[in-house]
């Protein structure tokens, strides 16, 4: 029995999630077959094969960079090799491809999985209801299961070396994809602030309640000698620009101090800031997931804590 | 452009104390409040903005018992023209739900179908693309920008790290919508009252010719996460806690 791992890469670089998916696959103790498809991906195969028993390489300019092409190639490879499990990231790309493969081949799919176990059948664990509940699911008996894994849940540091073989196969893609054409990447706008360079980040989330309260946090950041950053909802509401966003869809930061104010700590946010030296969280919900990554916590309304803290720090700094 | 939007009513668990029922099959819902799924609200807004710009109709659909109708009324108040509810309990898995939704959609006239990219309760992020594939139409997941061209749409997809990618997608198509694509409008109580006259159709699974569907994924049990390492909590009044935190920060040399 084999486990397929879909290798995600972008602009010539392997994505971290590919190694996390390899790690998830290795834990199943079966043959690990990595699927590496795209245009000019040969160089990447050397890096992937280190952790796989086999890398299937499909090099085809018609694939890059088109998710429909990736889907059809994966469909054909699954039909041919009949792996027991196909693992890919629950990333933007995984969300575009995995469900399509499941329907194309009539296979069960479980997404955003945090744990995979073999309990007779394949059992997956998912984190639901804002991370407050875990749930175990069984997948219907099938030849193959499609599983997408949550970013940051399967550690690439636990990978063991396999140094398998690289197998190049002809592309099963017969024609160009015309209904879904890749136009191009749009790089994030570069503004005046680079939050990744700050030693102290004072970061706000939904708990701030109103745009009118942003200046309060700005003042605190200034007094602390830090820079203002935020979680996703604040950017979604248009209260702060995208360049201030911490998390998987924003920036990954590693400041000396990360002060999370009214941020619940969704895993997408935590993935972007867990590398901080010191994390302090203020949230009125004592069960907010942010408190499990923070070293210090205050359970209170941020709108009360912010002015109080600003005042105390002013006093300390004289 | 005729647009169908799939919406879902979800419990608001962000700041709530969530408990699991004794059966282990669901959370205790009696003390929770319910709202339209945040991603779906952006999808409804996007559909209405497209209608306002290019004409056409917006139909909102959902699956659930009668008490989910308030999110349909809310969407009608935002500017949708018509609503459809399939009268049944929320199906156990996304595959079953996708079968029902695609049965509804295929009987409608549409150019574009919008879903939320995920839902705040189960965050499966899968139903929309399953439906697209069942209908045999082109899809794009995690869409955060739409530009209408002649017979196609330029859709921007959100990738990681702030990067976007743009696809040119032929219609008919299905997109799953990411939050932040627009600013959803405010819905007033009087607006909801006025929208009461708009049509809300109720269908049963048998109206759709749907018999029993075998789920692809079955829930075994729900449980609370084991208590992990937690922050050291700083207690006292707001003033006291702020003072203690300030002195800790000074002590650690970060101030």
Automatic annotation (TrEMBL), chain A:
InterPro entries: DHS-like_NAD/FAD-binding_dom, ETF_a/b_N, ETF_a/FixB, ETF_alpha_N, ETF_asu_C, Rossmann-like_a/b/a_fold. Gene3D superfamilies: HUPs, TPP-binding domain. GO terms for molecular function: electron transfer activity; flavin adenine dinucleotide binding. SUPFAM superfamilies: Adenine nucleotide alpha hydrolases-like, DHS-like NAD/FAD-binding domain. Pfam families: ETF, ETF_alpha. GO terms for biological process: fatty acid beta-oxidation using acyl-CoA dehydrogenase. The keyword Flavoprotein applies. Keywords: Flavoprotein, Transport. Residues 3-189 form the Electron transfer flavoprotein alpha/beta-subunit N-terminal domain. Belongs to the ETF alpha-subunit/FixB family. PANTHER family: ELECTRON TRANSFER FLAVOPROTEIN ALPHA, ELECTRON TRANSFER FLAVOPROTEIN SUBUNIT ALPHA, MITOCHONDRIAL. This is Electron transfer flavoprotein subunit alpha/FixB family protein. It comes from Methanoliparum thermophilum. The lineage of its organism: Archaea, Methanobacteriati, Methanobacteriota, Candidatus Methanoliparia, Candidatus Methanoliparales.
From TrEMBL, chain B:
The keyword Transport applies. InterPro entries: ETF_a/b_N, ETF_b, ETF_beta_N, Rossmann-like_a/b/a_fold. This is Electron transfer flavoprotein beta subunit/FixA family protein. Belongs to the ETF beta-subunit/FixA family. Keywords: Electron transport, Transport. SUPFAM superfamilies: Adenine nucleotide alpha hydrolases-like. It comes from Methanoliparum thermophilum. One of its GO terms (molecular function) is electron transfer activity. Residues 24-212 form the Electron transfer flavoprotein alpha/beta-subunit N-terminal domain.
């Amino acid at each position: 029995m084999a486990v397929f791992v879909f290798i995600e890469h972008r602009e010539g670089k392997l994505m971290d999630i590919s190694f996390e998916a390899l790690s998830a696959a290795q834990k199943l103790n079966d043959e690990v077959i990595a699927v590496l498809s795209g245009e000019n991906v040969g160089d990447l195969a050397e890096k992937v094969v280190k952790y796989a028993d086999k890398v299937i390489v499909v090099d085809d300019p018609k694939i890059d960079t088109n998710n429909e092409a990736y889907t059809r190639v994966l469909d054909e490879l699954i039909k041919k090799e009949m792996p027991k499990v196909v693992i890919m990231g629950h990333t933007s790309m995984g969300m575009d491809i995995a469900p399509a493969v499941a329907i194309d081949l009539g296979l069960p799919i479980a997404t955003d999985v945090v744990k995979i176990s073999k309990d007779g059948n394949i059992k997956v664990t998912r984190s639901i209801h804002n991370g407050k509940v875990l749930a175990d699911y069984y997948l219907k008996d099938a030849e193959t299961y499609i599983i997408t894994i949550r970013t940051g849940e399967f550690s690439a540091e636990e990978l063991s070396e396999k140094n398998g073989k690289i197998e190049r196969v002809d592309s099963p893609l017969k024609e160009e994809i015309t209904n879904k054409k890749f136009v191009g990447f749009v790089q994030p706008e570069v503004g005046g602030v680079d939050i990744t360079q700050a030693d102290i980040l004072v970061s706000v989330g939904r708990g701030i309640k109103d745009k009118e309260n942003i200046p309060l946090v700005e003042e605190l950041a200034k007094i602390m000698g830090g820079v203002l950053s935020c979680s996703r909802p604040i950017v979604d509401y248009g209260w702060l620009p995208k360049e201030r966003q911490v998390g998987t869809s924003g920036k990954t930061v590693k400041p000396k101090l990360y002060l999370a104010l009214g941020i619940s700590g969704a895993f997408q946010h935590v993935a972007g800031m867990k590398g901080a030296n010191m994390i302090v969280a203020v949230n009125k919900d004592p069960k907010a997931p942010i408190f499990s990554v923070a070293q210090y916590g205050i359970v209170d309304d941020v709108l009360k804590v912010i002015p109080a803290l600003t005042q105390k720090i002013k006093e300390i700094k004289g | 452009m005729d647009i169908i939007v799939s919406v879902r009513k979800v419990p608001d668990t962000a700041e709530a104390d969530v408990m699991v029922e004794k059966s282990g099959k669901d959370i205790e819902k009696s003390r929770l409040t319910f709202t339209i799924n945040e991603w779906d609200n952006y999808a409804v807004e996007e559909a209405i903005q497209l209608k306002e710009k290019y004409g056409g109709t917006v139909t909102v659909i959902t699956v659930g018992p009668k008490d989910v109708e308030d999110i349909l009324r809310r969407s009608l108040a935002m500017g949708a023209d018509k609503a459809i509810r399939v009268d049944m309990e929320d199906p156990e898995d996304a595959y079953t739900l996708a079968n029902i939704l695609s049965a509804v959609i295929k009987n409608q006239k549409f150019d574009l179908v919008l879903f939320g990219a995920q839902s705040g309760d189960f965050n499966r992020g899968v139903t929309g693309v399953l439906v697209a594939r069942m209908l045999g139409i082109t899809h794009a997941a995690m869409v955060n920008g739409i530009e209408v061209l002649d017979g196609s749409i330029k859709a921007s997809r959100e990738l990681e790290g702030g990067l976007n990618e743009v696809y040119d997608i032929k219609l008919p198509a299905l997109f799953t919508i990411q939050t932040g694509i627009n600013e959803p409008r405010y819905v007033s109580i009087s607006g909801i009252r006025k929208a009461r006259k708009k049509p809300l159709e109720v269908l049963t699974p048998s109206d759709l010719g749907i018999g029993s569907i075998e789920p692809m994924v079955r829930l075994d049990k729900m449980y609370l996460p084991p208590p992990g390492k937690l922050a050291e909590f700083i207690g006292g009044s707001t003033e006291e806690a702020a003072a203690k935190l300030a002195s800790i920060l000074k002590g650690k040399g970060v101030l």
